[in-house]
Amino acid sequence: ELILRPQDLQILGLSESGEAAEQWLQDPSEEGFFALVARQEQVFDLLSTVSSELKNLDKAMEEHAQVLGDEEKTQLEDFLASRGRGLPALAASRRWLLQLEHAARLRIAEVRLQLTELWTQLGTPISGQEEVLLKLRGIDGGDTLKELRELQTQTAKMRDKIESKQDIMRRIQISNELEKQIQEFEKEASDAARLRGNSVKLLQEEQQRLRFRRKKAKLIEELVGRIAEWEEKAGERFVHEDRYLREALHQELEETMQMGALSLSNQSSS
Question: Are 216 and 171 spatial neighbours (Cβ–Cβ below 8 Å)?
Fold first, then answer.
């Protein structure tokens, strides 16, 4: 048994009283069929439009989620799995995209603040900051995602730069501590009374002095290599205590090698 529903009558352009519908079903007319075909084409066009717009929305939402991070990607996957179909899905997707666009604008403000803090921590000169800001201002059409990507790239570079610098500073501290040990050793060795009644002690001191110099040379050589890597990535020279550290360490390495008559092969074998 065929049961007519309100939406069926609306598509057919019939009244909701039921009489016209029953009459049309009992005695269908050519005019009615033409009306049904025309309405069906309109429905197909609407479904095609909805499908096309959903694809565009899906692409835009995925691009936003990709830039925003894993949490937003997971949330989007859950939304797409439960949004349904048709016009309700279209309306829900538009709302979701608006939320993602708002989240991207908030993230831009957050990352800009983080970048400023990193600049302060690293002591980035104003000229370096202005270079990044000019690049951001040059983004065409206020492309939110492009601006966020660039900010994330710059922030990642600053963090990597800080981590690399911290590693170098730790190595400098180790080298300084070794230098203190060497100075204390030489201070004790400067006491001539230490050798009385002990002819072997002088040989032991020379052996210890040689070990210190080899260890110091190896530390400095590794430190110079790290600084060279940092300078290549950062595009600037590494400054420490108002001096270009790599050049100063090169000089110190040469002096250490000369004092101990060391060669590079001796350093690598220590």
Answer: no
Q: What is the pLDDT of residues 205-218, one digit of tens each?
A: 888 888 888 888 88
Q: Which has the closest alpha carbon to 155: 227, 100, 107?
A: 107
Grouping H, G, I as helix, E, B as strand and the rest as coil, residue 136 is: helix
Residue with tokens 């989240």: 103
262: confidence class by pLDDT, cuts 50, 70, 90: very low
Q: Which of 60, 63, 58, 59 is nearest to 89 (CA)?
A: 58
DSSP assignment of 171-236, as one string? HHHHHHHHHHHHHHHHHHHT-GGGGTT-SSHHHHHHHHHHHHHHHHHHHHHHHHHHHHHHHHHHTS
Q: Specify the pLDDT at position 143.
A: 86
Length of the chain: 270
Total Cβ atoms within 10 A of residue 95? 10
Residues 6+ apart with CB under 8 A from 161: 122, 230, 233, 234
